[in-house]
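User: quick one - fold this with adenosine-5'-triphosphate bound?
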Amino acid sequence: MLKTLARIWRLVRPHMGKVVLISALGIVVAGCTALLPYLASLFFKEVLENRNPGYAKWIPYAFPAVYAVLGLARYFHFTGVRYLSEVVAAELRKRLLDKLTRLNLTFHNQFRAGSGGMMSRFLNDTTVFQEGIYFAVDFIREPLIALALIGQMLWLDWKLSLAALVCLPFIGGALRKVGKSLKKYGYLNREAMDDLTATVKESLDGVRVIQSFNLEDEMSRRFGSNLGEYLRTRRKVINREEGVSPMNEFIVSLIFMGFAIYAINEVFGGRSSAGELTSFLLAAGLIQMPLKKIQNAHIRLQQTVVVAERLWQLLESDSFVPQAAEPRPFPADWKRIRFKGVSFDYGSEPVLQDVDVTINRGETVALVGESGSGKSTIVNMLERFFDPTQGQILIDDVPLAEFDLVDLRRNIALVTQDVFLFRDSIERNIQAGDLSKDPAGVAPAAKLANAHGFIERTAQGYRSPVGDRGNFLSGGEKQRISIARAIFKDAPILILDEATSALDSVSELEVQKGLNHLIQGRTVFVIAHRLSTVFSANRILVLKKGRIIEQGTHNSLLERRGEYFNFFQLQMTGSADVVQRN
Ligand SMILES: Nc1ncnc2c1ncn2[C@@H]1O[C@H](COP(=O)(O)OP(=O)(O)OP(=O)(O)O)[C@@H](O)[C@H]1O
Ligand SMILES: [Mg+2]
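Assistant: Sure. Structure tokens for the protein plus adenosine-5'-triphosphate:
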């Protein structure tokens, strides 16, 4: 808990100046709030007891004066703290996004509630955190008010006050106990919220599949069960939150009972005046308010600690791609890429086993093999999305891990089957290949990718929005934009993982022309099910269950009559079949 509070404090510390100002205003608010009953007590004492106006006749004028100061201080105090809590939450969100985009793919793959759960932390938890900051100021202001009131009570009747104060630890003890259980259910409730958000995200992302497979009821059932768990844990939280007040109010009523009995004795015994006791009871009554606020702030604090622990779990995660302490720049004149005894698994089954292969600069290498044989995994390792569990990948005898990651990735252009476009214009999506480059290169890149024609035909040309994840465009159009993005990046290593799979044969042929142009002078890894793109490769690697079982040129592999030959036969008869049927 203390560790979490320290972390929160580190986030707030840069705003020290504002915190001091807000606290100072809080002290003014506390002072004025406590001054009012003091003025009232003075008034009662003088008017009821002395029957002599004396200075009491000035007291009525003091009320508006105190309220004016109180009003101003309160205005700036609360606007200050509310805005500060927004700023701190915004900074937290910024840090979270910076972190999330840098965490490695293993982390993202293994995150319990998936990207929806991540969004829940991002949006819901930070909102709870923000409210927590707002309520934290109550811990500064309200105890001051309480202290001032206690001071007055002591001044009026110290024995009685001390007797009342003895009861405070009971209230504190009860609060602590409830706080613990609040935290427990708070966690469960946040997790239920993660699942809830995850279901919403899937319902939106998968709306086409859901409608096509009539899964609306299934999603509704799933959401219902998420909601059920959310409500169950929420109820536990609410019960505890609301249980605190009645419990404490009852304790306070016992104190009041004591006061009243004592008052009867004192007044009738002639030891105290009615005026004194009225003032005392006024202060004692008013102290309820700050106590209640402190109690409420304490409850909020429990929630804030829960979300802060969840948020810092992300913020402090070190699931980065490991970087060398002194990373080397990626050499401009490298000669070869070598996979040396590379094995890999995602945690259980081996996905790659003992891959040993050297690729010379300028070579075009095709990876062929049945689905799940590990083709994408091999190229993913080049970008260090995943590192080998055994063995190494070397560039001229230097392990990939020793290069600066940003520099390494700057040297690789990747086009995958699952195209991702940003909710932005066509131009910006192509330019995303390298934002430091002159956008004048966008149109030539689009021409090479055979995308220029359709882009020109859209309403605003290159300025046309592509929609959410590119849904204003067809599959093939999206793919051509992603190819244009890679062409625009102009990196020496090019990875085409099923890059043309969404294109029809005519477009593929056109894109192929562009790609042929692109391939010149580059080192290219091509993964393609359609073999036409593979024929011309300098070398074909045939994978089976994570091992390279054959390699060579198209012709030499055909001569071997091995796995590739079978594969080729199958492809040929398959396409012949299609041609016949058409
Ligand atoms: N994130 C992941 N977590 C666990 N297993 C994975 C993950 N990604 C892939 N795999 C598994 O690793 C194996 C190799 O996957 P990979 O994507 O490299 O195959 P591929 O040869 O590219 O197949 P395809 O031709 O279908 O694209 C598969 O058995 C797959 O189930
Ligand atoms: Mg693949």
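One thing worth noting: The chain has 22 helices and ten strands.
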